[in-house]
Amino acid sequence: MAWSQDEERMLAMIERHLSDEDPRLAARLESFNERVARGEHGRRRGDRRRRRRPRRSTVVIAVSWLLIATLIATLLIMAFRHDAAAAFPVAAPFPL
Questions:
Q1: pTM of the predicted protein model
Q2: Residues in contact with 52: Cβ distance below 8 Å, sequence separation at least 6, in sequence order
Q3: What's the burial of 19, exposed, middle or buried (CB within 10 Å: 0-12/13-18/19+)?
Q4: Do residues 30 and 38 make contact, with C-beta atoms less than 8 angstroms apart?
Q5: Distances in Å between the alpha carbon of 88 and those of 30, 37, 38, 83, 93?
Q6: What sections of the chain are H helices per DSSP?
Q7: pLDDT tens, 50-95?
Q8: Residue 15: pLDDT above 90?
Q9: pLDDT average, residue stretch 38-59
Q10: Do residues 26 and 19 make contact, with C-beta atoms less than 8 angstroms apart?
Q11: DSSP single-letter state for residue 96
């Protein structure tokens, strides 16, 4: 639905008034409009199946959990081996 000339003129007047009154708000709105336009342009090309890259924080958390699980498994293996080795006396390789 197209805007009438009067509506377009009033919207332009409101836009000028707001940008004169608060230039930071106008800059933020312009930035937002550019990002929305880029997002819509990407979706129009049929690129909906594109996979997003995980955020850096997600990768750091996943690696941290993997490291913690590895350390716990290593400690458990070492503890069980130590208990098993302590149960059987080991003969000295050279008799004294």
A1: 0.37
A2: none
A3: middle
A4: no
A5: 76, 73, 70, 9, 15
A6: 5-21, 23-44, 56-87
A7: 677 788 899 999 999 999 999 999 998 888 887 766 666 656 566 5
A8: no
A9: 70
A10: yes
A11: -
On the 0-12 / 13-18 / 19+ scale of CB atoms within 10 A, 26 is: middle
Asked if 44 and 36 touch (Cβ cutoff 8 Å), the reply is no
The Cα 3–Cα 15 span in angstroms is 15
d(CA 16, CA 8): 12
- What size, in residues, is the chain? 96
- The answer to whether residues 18 and 26 touch, using CB atoms and an 8 Å cutoff, is yes
Tell me which amino acid residue 66 is: L
Count Cα neighbours of 91 within 13 Å in the Cβ-side half-sphere. 3
- The two tokens of residue 36 are 């929305």
| 7 CB neighbour count, 10 Å cutoff | 10
Task: Name the pLDDT band for 43 (thresholds 50, 70, 90).
Answer: low
